[in-house]
Amino acid sequence: MRPAVGLAEGLRDSDRADGCPVTATALGTAGRLPDIQRAAGAAFDHRQGLVREELTASGVPGDEAAGLACTIISTLEGAEPAAQVTPVQPPLRLAGTYPARLVALSLPR
User: How distant is the alpha carbon of residue 104 from its chain centre?
Assistant: First the structure.
């Protein structure tokens, strides 16, 4: 199962209540609690690093893998709150579809 599909289903099953706790914490503490902001930033960096490592292992060149990992994580993190406030789930499903196309374009031929 693609990660975005799993996220979409989890969000649906929780009646749109269970979004990303890191995003919620980061947004809820913005400008007020720098230690929590740093921890949230580290969590995002870690996720991005995991994606970058997978992309690199799949053959995507280093700099491109880093940029693509940032794009993928940013897309998913933006799609999740959008999915929480819309009556249907396309934001997360689309967030898994189009980055997959970018990855395919980035692989060596």
Answer: 18
